[in-house]
Amino acid sequence: MAQHQNHGGHHSHGSMKEYVIGFILSIVLTIIPLVLVMNSILSKTATMITILVMAVLQFVVQLVFFMHIREGEKPRYNVQTLILGLVIVFTIVAGSLWIMLFNKY
Amino acid sequence: MWENIKDFASTFFVTGDPLIYGADVSIVLSIIAIVFVLTKYKKWGWLWREWLTTVDHKRIGIMYLIASLLMLFRGGVDALLMRLQLAFPNVEFLNSEHYNAIFTTHGTIMILFMAMPMMFALFNMVVPLQLGARDVAYPFLNALSFWLFMLGAMLFNISFVIGGSPDAGWLSYPPLSQNEFSPGPGQNFYIWGIQISGIGSLATGINFIVTILKMRAPGMKLSKMPLFSWSVLSSCIMIIFAFPILTVTLALLFLDRFAGAHFFTMDGGGNPMMYLNLIWMWGHPEVYIVVVPAFGIFSEIVATFSRKKIFGYKSMVWAMMIIAVVSFFTWAHHFFTMGTSASVIAFFAISTMIVGIPTGVKVFNWLFTMYRGRISFKQPMLWTIAFIPCFVIGGATGVMLAVAPADYQYHNSYFLVAHFHQVLIGGVVFGYLAGIYYWWPKLFGFKLDEKLGKWGFWFWNIGFYVCFMPQYALGFMGMTRRYYTYGWDRGWADLNLVSTVGAFLMGIGFIFQVWQIAYSIKNGERDTTGDPWNGRTLEWSIPSPAPFYNFAVVPQVKEMDDWWATKEAKANGTYKEEPAKLEPIHMPKNSGIPFIMANFWFLVGFGFTFGWVWMAVIGFIGVFACMWARSFQYDTDYYVPVEEVRRTEASLGRVV
Ligand code: HEM
Ligand SMILES: [Cu+2]
Question: InterPro entries from the xrefs (chain A) (predicted)?
């Protein structure tokens, strides 16, 4: 609904350039870990750290270029959601490590 | 050539079981019957214009409702087949493989293709009306969600006549669900059926969050929003955080199966326990996703039928919001027995007990609301009252399971089976049924017959206890879940027979309800007032069935339970009639794209299920073509002229 009101043009959702940059960055950030793992280029720890860094960067790219985290009239919702999202991401990663590391044989 | 075709057909179609041939025949016959009726009465155009392309939230709600009732039937038949098999020792009705397939499809269908769509049916039927809005925030997306759900469900359901059903349990744990042990297409049906409908669920979550935050009528602050809408908000928050986890987990499992990856394999560095860890991160919030809206429904019904404001509104809101967050911190209680450190177990045992607290608060609030109220025992209230003891027992046995050392005894026994059915039936199913009875007149314009409804109610309720109470005992007696047969020497025979009788009583209850709907379509009491229960919230201020634009004039909200306040003011003579000014109403246009796009997704899923990549590619091309087409559609909305609004309202008996 409300198409007319929203697309009245008082603020835009990013430019073509931004989307293209975001798209390229996210693809590059995906290909790097894939190439590293497929060709076993780095040592195990180095690979893991690289993947982790790429994941965090990917997260940022998505938020900035596609989710327009910097825009919006009421950033309060954005910030609240972002915090909850971060808490849950942290729980997923840290919780899995905590539960699973015990099983390392 | 002929040999090849015969070869293909014998693996493509499921063969060998008379039950399956019976199903084949009935499927073909019903398809022929449907096509015949639609053609004879020239209804194809009507079907396309009014239903397949609709973006009206009420119609989408009705379609969800029909689909979920069909799925309840299918899941129920599965349940009865299992109970027949278990009624006596050494029965040879289903063999072990068939039993595995049936408990898998039963569990998956009941949760993902029955409870979820019935919940979405209620979201769609009620939320915009309760908020004083004319539709959801994204009507097109809403239609897309529905069709993705529908085609995903169909993909899953055809597995029992084509290709073979999944049979690795409703959560499809590896290593059993890996190629090595489940080589056929069954697990792929499971993965793609859930993936496709899962995209729809995620989109619905987003849609309703935005609707609730952005589309409330002027004056309706969040602090005045009805509790059902709050419960939807809580549920949707969980959806948007939990469903991506499911999607990723199943995608990884598919990569293992399709591309030879090693995420969850036993060798190559994989670890099957990681799958359990991930799937329960979705799975535990999932049970709260489906139960919290039931809490919202009960809150509305208890207030309406006790003629009182809900007791402890604020604590209700807090309870639901806390559940939305804390439910993400309990997942490991589903695999305590797999082995991990003591501190992990302690943490998750305690967090599990903590989620019980807000739920307890809510139960007390309902009881306090009823206390000294003038309660009328209409159908919605009956189901609500039946729910309370049932859920209390289910909650108590849940806390027993959360006591980790004791869980080593109960885990995967019939005690667990009884527990989760108690919360799923007593909480979710009873809650949704209560909601359907409550809001039915608003959608269809007539009430469901009380007398037949009461028969259904008592059969369900008595059947429930007869079916599941013996299972707690069977659990203590050592019967574990997913057992397909047992011997006389176990001493389980009597209780199992009783349990089967209970299951059939519930089946009879369901038949009464179908009869009730059919009977009421012809003879049901028409709702001419739009407010059959003397309701409190905005949806009862408009005529029944609600016109397609919902509100002729957007309401100005002043109070919590605004409609009740208006009625009181009218009775006291303090009501100031403001002249209603009709304006053209802005509405979204119908679109065929959601339906078409979902069908292409079906092709994608079907192609990957059988490893026919060409078909999946065609599907993906179709999906992108649909997105492309939609991106360049500018003519997506229109205005309903004032004259038409006036005419519609007049035909519903209202003058504006
Ligand atoms: C209507 C009456 C119902 C009956 C008689 C019934 C009966 C059963 C039976 C016999 C099993 C298999 C137990 C085993 O062998 O381990 C089962 C499993 C299950 N049921 Fe139901 N059920 C009913 C309704 C429901 C509903 C409404 C839901 C969910 C909303 C549900 C969810 C499940 C799940 C998740 C499983 C586990 C499947 C698995 O082990 O993978 N059931 N049920
Ligand atoms: Cu749980």
Answer: Cyt_c_oxidase_su4_prok (IPR005171), Cyt_o_ubiqinol_oxidase_su4 (IPR014210), Cytochrome_c_oxidase_bac_sub4 (IPR050968)
